[in-house]
Amino acid sequence: MDNEQSLELHRSDAFSPLNQYVLGVQEKIAASAAAVYVLHRRTVVNEWYSGTHGFSPGSRPVGADSRFNVASVRKTYLGFAVSLALYEGRIGGLDDPVSDYIADPDGALLAGTTIRHLLTHTHGLASPQKRIFPPGAGWAYNNVGVNLLIRMIGEVFGKPLAQLLNEKVFRPGGFTETGWRKHQTDGLVWLNEAYSSEEGTDINLFVSARELASWGQLHLSKGMWNGMQLIPRPVWEQTAEIISPEGLGDALPRNGFFWFVQDRPRSLTELGHELPAGSYQSLGSTGCACLVIPEKEAVAVRMYNQTGPNPGGYSYLDDIRTFGNTVYGCLNVMDLQADRSP
């Protein structure tokens, strides 16, 4: 990781409850590996690792360079690419029909479906051949919209998503522990799955905890990185603004460019109810999550390698909300400790 020199180190014991909580969930969901990484004002205030890359004897211990499959957190990287396409004029606007940018044999099914709908899970498509509600009339989480946007990005940029991110962000920013991988190597917390591509089309984005935190920091700092503006500020700003269609049910989540964004507590959102407005987060099925709290100038990351079904009595929504609330509580404790220090 070439960008670590930009981050100061100042560990705080205020985060012990967070580490203990993540450890407890690790045991509950039968993950062999876990990590926590917290930045506050670009300072590393908590870094914690647990377990090994797998359950087999001799599996490598989890460390700073261990790279986890972040699953659906990859969608925030796609969301960034869509934002960049808008900024560069490759896409006219969020309310443009998807069919303007990709050729699809089921174009009739896409009628009325916009880029906004795909980014906010309000497109109503259960599969490329099945619709469950009209565009903008509800919210349903799946990968149909994701796959359509990946195709669109390839069309408007003339290159795969992974190549675009390598050229625009990863190489200029010194990100060496982030990328789509289809072959197992020593540094990857492997899930024993088969992947067909490294172009950004599969669910195989592997990232270290510290570089996922840096991804969150890039959004928090609006692209300012190591003293340079890495992609214009508006590209980063709009990714975490709520763009969900008007009229959604009160309980339903509100989204930016795939990020879940807090406006106020909602019963079906993954954001903890104690988190302040403007906080945003992304969660993957492996348990990995990236949480950004602008009010606190903080980024918190947790990593797991969950592969099995959720155990009985476990609610992923309760879990991820508790994670966010615990992060926020620890940040408050740290602030109190700082106020009391001479």
TrEMBL record:
What SUPFAM superfamilies does the record tag this protein with? Answer: beta-lactamase/transpeptidase-like
- Which named protein is this? Beta-lactamase family protein
| Domain called Beta-lactamase-related: residue spans | 30-312
- What are the GO MF terms of this UniProt record? hydrolase activity
Entries under Pfam families matching the protein: Beta-lactamase
Is the Methyltransferase keyword given for this protein? no
Q: Which UniProt keywords apply?
A: Hydrolase
Does Ribonucleoprotein appear among the keywords?
Answer: no
Q: Which organism is it from?
A: Paenibacillus chitinolyticus
Q: Which InterPro entries match?
A: Beta-lactam-related, Beta-lactam/transpept-like, Diverse_Enzym_Activities
Locate the coiled-coil region(s) and give their ranges: none
